[in-house]
Write a structure and sequence with these properties.
Elements: E1 4-9, H1 11-15, E2 28-29, E3 32-33, H2 34-37, H3 40-45, H4 47-63, H5 68-75, E4 81-86, H6 92-96, E5 101-103, E6 106-113, E7 120-122, E8 140-144, H7 154-162, E9 166-170, E10 192-195, E11 206-208, H8 212-225
Parallel strand pairs: 1-4, 1-9, 4-5, 9-10, 10-11
Antiparallel strand pairs: 2-3, 6-7, 6-8
Helix pairs in contact: 5-8
Length: 226
């Protein structure tokens, strides 16, 4: 049976593809305070601003490309069972070729009903406008898990981590819960590697102090040598 590798990815993974994240700049995301664009209260207060913000992110994503780290992880599926658990809302893992991706914080290319969480629609890189309604008559919103909302896929992610033979953490400081708690589900004998040019906050982890692409390529080489 092939080893199961679970990869936890965050903002640093997509940053090398040119996608900015709010943690780069003191709580700002593309010059917007995250509490103005990434909370249910923000959507209630100014839905036009929130929709415009995510429409711009979707347009930006359309021109972004998977980087070497995305491609290297996708390529591992030839020899290993790979589960990607990502905090990113882009589709770069899928476009690189990864086939089992768990999106903790939702997906930018989806809309959902503002009243019914299960009414989800694929919209590609198109826009969501005021007046765009689900079939039940409520305004559509981005299918993004905003601050203060439940994370529907966290149990799926925890189950994957609990069955891992290797855990790789790339581009995330794992400071935001519930994602930060996923490492608690890793079996004690399972090796954990963190790829981050800064400080790692995961105990007992081997740390590769490099950016996502350089670090993932090094880790893949070490995996092959092991």
């Amino acid at each position: 049976m092939r080893d199961h590798i679970v990869v936890l990815t965050g903002a640093g993974m997509s940053a090398e593809s040119g996608l900015k994240t709010f943690r780069d700049n003191g709580g700002l995301w593309e010059n917007h305070d995250v509490y103005d664009v990434a909370t249910p209260e923000a959507f209630q207060r100014n839905p036009e601003l929130v929709l415009r913000f995510y429409n711009e992110r979707r347009s930006q994503l359309e021109s972004a490309q998977p980087n070497a780290a995305h491609k290297a992880l996708a390529n591992l599926e030839k020899d290993y069972r790979i589960t990607i658990v990502t905090q990113n809302v882009d589709d770069l893992h899928e476009r690189a070729g990864s086939t089992h991706v768990v999106h903790l914080h939702g997906q930018l290319k989806q809309a959902r009903s503002s009243k019914l969480e299960h009414a989800i629609y694929d919209i590609g890189y198109g826009k969501i406008e005021m007046g765009d309604l689900c079939e039940h008559g409520s305004q559509l919103r981005p299918n993004i898990v905003w601050f203060g909302e439940a994370v529907p896929m966290i149990e799926t992610a925890a189950e994957a981590v609990a069955t891992a033979d290797h855990v790789l953490i790339v581009g995330t400081s794992l400071q935001v819960y519930p994602a930060a708690g996923l490492v608690d589900f890793v079996e004690s004998h399972v090796p954990i590697t963190v790829i981050d040019p800064g400080e790692a906050n995961v105990s007992r982890a081997r740390v590769i102090r490099k950016g996502a692409s350089e670090g993932v390529l090094e880790w893949v080489r070490l995996l092959g040598d092991g």
